[in-house]
Design goal:
Blueprint: E1 2-6, E2 9-12, E3 17-24, E4 32-38, E5 45-51, E6 57-59, E7 67-72, E8 77-82, E9 91-98, E10 113-114, E11 118-123
Parallel strand pairs: 2-11
Antiparallel strand pairs: 1-3, 3-8, 4-5, 4-9, 5-6, 7-8, 9-10, 9-11
């Protein structure tokens, strides 16, 4: 599976961005697709996930109510809609694909394929 992440950029606090993660070479069927984020010198942090089949979602407490993860079957793409952005949302955002269950979906070790990352910078 090859993943292409896009949609990052510079935005003012309170603004919105939509990230996209498109798959090529395979579909997301049977997998969980997640977004993680990372800043230099820090661990990769879980943001949100969605099961391709069934659509079950999970969010980090820090983004609950502000971010929405969704999927488009026809485009084989997962989106992360980010609203009410804050300065501490600044990070490189990565999409990832893996076979997970409810107890493992927030752990980056259970994801096998990763996109290249897209930078989100929120100015305060």
């Amino acid at each position: 599976v090859q993943l292409q992440a896009s949609g990052g950029g510079l935005v003012q606090a309170g603004g919105s961005l939509r990230l996209s993660c498109a798959a090529s070479g395979s579909t997301f069927s049977g997998y969980t697709v997640a977004w993680f984020r990372q800043n230099p010198g820090k661990d990769r942090e879980f943001v949100a996930s969605i099961r391709w089949s069934g659509g079950n979602t999970a969010y980090a407490d820090s983004v609950e109510g502000r971010f929405t993860i969704s999927r488009d079957y026809a485009k084989n793409t997962v989106y992360l809609e980010m609203n009410s952005l804050r300065h501490d949302d600044t990070a490189a955002y990565y999409c990832a694909v893996g076979r997970t269950i409810a107890t493992t979906r927030r752990n980056s070790r259970y994801y096998d394929w990763w996109g290249q990352g897209t930078q989100v910078t929120v100015s305060s």
